[in-house]
Amino acid sequence: MGIKGLQGFVARVCPDACKTVDLREVAEKHRIDHPDFPPVIVVDAMSCVRYWYTPESWVCGGQWREYLAILEDFIKAFMAAGIKLVFYFDGVVEEKKRDEWIKRRLQNNKEIARIFQFIKTHRKQPGREMFAVPSALPTFTRFALKSLGQKTVCTLQEADFEVAAYGLQHNCIGILGQDSDYLIYNTCPYFSIEKLSLDRLVTVMYSREDLCRALGLSLTHLPLFACLLGNDVVPESLLEGFWRKCLVTSPHKNNSYNRRTNILLAVANYISKVPCSYSSLKHLEEMLPLGSDKTLLHRGVESYLLPGQQSPWIPPNLTSCQTFSLQQQTAVCQDKEIFQLAKEQHIQSENYTIFNILSKGEIECSNSLEDECDAEIPGQALIYRPARQHIYSVLLESGKGGAYPLVKEWFVYFGNPLQQPELIQPVQPSMPGGTPNLKTLWFAKGPDVEKQRCSTFLACFHLQDRMEELQALEAPVAAFCCLLAYLMMQVSSLSLEDLNAFVAVILCLKGKSAAQLASLQLAQVDSRGVHLGAVFVRGLTTLLMANSACGFPFRMDDLMPWEVFDGKLFQEKYQQSHQGCSLEELLEGNESLYTPFQNLKSFICKACAAKKRTIQSRPRGNGFITGTQQREFNPRFQQTHRSSFVPPYHNRMRGFLWRNPQPQGKKY
Fold first, then answer.
1. In sequence order, which residues have a C-beta less than 8 Å from that of residue 661 and are 6 or more positions away?
2. 266-274, long-range: CB within 8 Å, 24+ apart, which pairs?
3. What is the pTM of this model?
4. Per-residue pLDDT tens digits for 4-26
5. Are 501 and 36 in contact (CB under 8 A)?
6. What residue ranges carry the coiled-coil annotation (predicted)?
7. Which residues sit opposite 408 in a β-bridge?
8. Mind listing the pLDDT tens digit for each residue in 211-235?
9. I need a surface site. Which of 352, 377, 569, 595 has the fewest CB within 10 A?
């Protein structure tokens, strides 16, 4: 997660360490020097997503088709220069980083509350200075890049370590990202995504060697320098006394610099006078108030050592190369075949979160754009928890004595202080004969197994009785209906107007280009519509998890937001629906959509009615919440529900296959 203030310090105080480079020229030089190895840039995708997401609208749930087009253009620019990209995503939150993760999530909660306050006050999206990435953006970026043919890796430990190691081991021309830790690792050059001019392929390269020259240090000093400034291993709170001591003796103190800059210079000055030895490190550990853990500095320095590297601060016999430490025997899942396949699919970005559950029995979910003041809509973490409990049951099966292991959840929602994980009990979904075992779902073949995969998936969302109707739909529409029916069942405050808006989106989205969606202008933004957009997109990630657990009854591509959702389009339909517009206006005058609209709506209403949930009309007018009273059903949307279901988009593939047959082991 980087060293606070280091990136800005380099730009302000060490301008010689910031070199403008033409990546085409760098690639050409590499081709001359290494004719048998094409130039490769390894991309720290997690630090790039906020720079990639440039659509104008970001609060409404995501402009997914626009974003997909942006990623495609990004890839094409590098391909045109003959540069191959390899994308890395964080696959875990390591235990040593959990406190920092929690701190950031709680801070993000405050920022999101300010965003909603702005929307309610001004009825529009805030400026980019308040930007928050759309909910689940990193998750769907990973699948987007994979669908665009890119090598996409999901890590088994913190991504920056794996990125730095890959760059070094594969002789990459550089790392593209925005994380000051890449100034500390002794690896290939570090290029800035923030400074990248895509049309010219020009950016800034941050030079470790020039940084060291400016600070009077050597490359071997950098890991200790990072630790003594405070990083993910050594908390800043332990270093205040040490910094004060360094500031007193520093010859570089400059009143025109801020305190952090003077601390960086003072710490560098102190380290430059310390002999590079293990005894020096031990002396520092004794000097610092490290409490019971006197090995913090040792572990901090070691965290920057890539495979095959050594440090004068740590004797070779005390260096334990960082590798994925979780062994099969300590995993929650004890079946080697299942564990190995889940691990392979995790690394190759083919499944979603299930390896974390099978290995550590732990899962996390970051912030969503949810309004903590809206008491009528529970946090998405709570809405989808019953589905997750069924998914956990499918994955973990019952252990000895019929008991399931509990799953630790770190999910961000209003009212959760994140002081410890919530311990969640897996719950078996309701299926005749019980759920099939995981080996059957993952490895068996044949139409009966395909049917079991589908029925298990549907049972996770309480829709196992609706398989025949859903099978008649095209895959993305079927998945959309699963999610929307579940959502309407779980959240009693959702109204017919909300349902109309969601159904109108999937029908009107079909055939719309990224450019058409980009040109859509909203007169105002409704905060409840923003909240519902985020809840829906998080629901799509729950579909991904269920699909991964049940042996992929759907192709993952069919569960992506650009297939079924657009934030601005939903915001428009939401406002139209609540303002009581005509069906003609809601469906943009396209009469061919009237019957599909009624059929999809009818399916969802019937699925809810079967669970004793009646969806009421409750128009909110011009975006203001108008109280809790039930309203008359808007007659302009009222048509008699058909007794027989006529699919709006007929699935041309019969039988129990939403996904195309794929080679064994490649379920994506």
1. none
2. 267/225, 267/228, 267/229, 267/243, 268/215, 268/216, 268/217, 268/225, 269/216, 270/228, 270/246, 271/217, 271/221, 271/224, 271/225, 271/228, 272/215, 272/216, 272/217, 272/221
3. 0.91
4. 999 999 999 999 999 999 999 99
5. no
6. none
7. 362, 423
8. 999 999 999 999 999 999 998 888 8
9. 595
